[in-house]
Design goal:
Arc Repressor Mutant, subunit A; alpha+beta; elongated; about 130 residues; two-stranded antiparallel ribbon; three-stranded antiparallel sheet
């Protein structure tokens, strides 16, 4: 049985990253580590308002973290949320019937840790 709530969350996350501009923004933030909106729109040659709209979608989806420094907001990648999305999508495409975007991925073996986040392999996903 498919968990409709988790499926909706996974769908919203997938929709948030499905836009080429948002993917470019995520890639740029990832490359920079931390950056602000001015750097994003100047480097990617986007309008400030368009950049802010896309960043809002990424914030609502919790794919980016924010930290305020005076009048500036610094953006960084929420690696935990990205890892959870990756696990959920891998589980879905591995023909699993239960999709839980909020699952605790910390239960994976320590040998499968990347930047402090547990990642399950395809074989582990099929075994569970």
């Amino acid at each position: 049985m498919i968990n409709q709530s988790s499926l909706k969350k996974a769908s919203n996350l997938a929709r948030a990253i499905a836009h080429p501009v948002r993917l470019a923004i995520l890639k740029f933030i990832s490359e920079q580590g931390t950056t602000n909106v001015n750097s994003i729109y100047n480097t990617l040659n986007l309008e400030q308002s368009i950049t802010s709209q896309h960043l809002r979608i990424l914030r609502v989806a919790e794919l980016v973290d924010t930290q305020r420094d005076g009048k500036f907001i610094h953006y960084s990648i929420n690696h935990t949320k990205i890892a959870k999305l990756n696990v959920a999508l891998n589980d879905f495409f591995a023909k699993k019937t239960v999709i839980d975007i909020d699952q605790n991925i910390e239960e994976a073996p320590k040998s499968n840790r990347h930047n402090g986040v547990s990642i399950r392999s395809q074989s582990q996903a099929k075994a569970s």
